[in-house]
Write a structure and sequence with these properties.
Layout lengths: L2 H5 L5 H4 L6 E4 L2 E4 L6 H17 L7 E3 L4 E4 L2 E3 L3 E4 L14 E5 L5 H5 L1 H8 L4 E6 L4 E8 L2 E7 L3 E7 L2 E6 L6
Parallel strand pairs: 7-8
Antiparallel strand pairs: 1-2, 3-6, 4-5, 6-7, 8-9, 9-10, 11-12
Length: 178
């Protein structure tokens, strides 16, 4: 154990529930969520949300959520920007992996989204991880294949997602960078 880890505070879900504001907790380490996102970040998130809602209209099982607590374990709770869940949520938080996660990068979150969170989502076998980068107008799609994420597409006009046994969707991704 490193010296820094030895002296760093360690928090759990019980602590997390007491905090004001928006936080994430990864292996006991708290991360304050950024202040309100910049307009471009919000616009990209809204457009992605719109396209996924339209595409999911005929799927009875899968639902789209915007920041929702995903409690992975007692010391790890994250709030992805967008997520798709294909099972019923029985608690006030998600306690199983979603099928798809979108993180929209901002300068203050890019390192965590491409590093810790990508590794965390991969360890939980989240089928699709999308990284939207408003600064470079780039959407990267990763799919969990075998034991790791594989890049499967960058800036596709349309993409065919197989979300659930009875749910596949074609999502128009062309217009998110208007």
């Amino acid at each position: 154990m490193s010296i820094a880890a030895k002296y760093r505070p360690y928090y759990t879900y019980e602590d997390y529930c007491q905090w004001e504001g928006r936080w994430e907790l990864i292996e006991g380490m708290p991360y304050a969520m950024s202040p309100a996102s910049i307009p471009e970040h919000q616009r990209v998130s809204v457009l992605l949300n719109f396209e996924f809602v339209k595409a999911l209209k005929n799927c009875k099982n899968c639902k789209l959520f915007q920041p929702l607590d995903w409690k992975i374990k007692e010391d790890t709770i994250v709030q992805p920007d967008l997520l798709i869940v294909c099972e019923k949520i029985e608690k006030k938080f998600l306690d199983f992996p979603p099928v798809l996660i979108v993180e929209t990068l901002s300068p203050s979150t890019a390192g965590k989204d491409r590093g810790e969170k990508m590794e965390l989502y991969q360890s939980q076998k989240v089928k699709y991880y999308l990284i939207a980068d408003p600064q470079f107008k780039k959407l990267e799609i990763y799919e969990y294949i075998n034991t790791q994420y594989e890049p499967v597409s960058v800036n596709p006009e349309m993409y065919h997602f197989i979300l659930h046994d009875n749910c596949t969707v074609d999502v128009n991704l062309l217009d998110i960078w208007e």
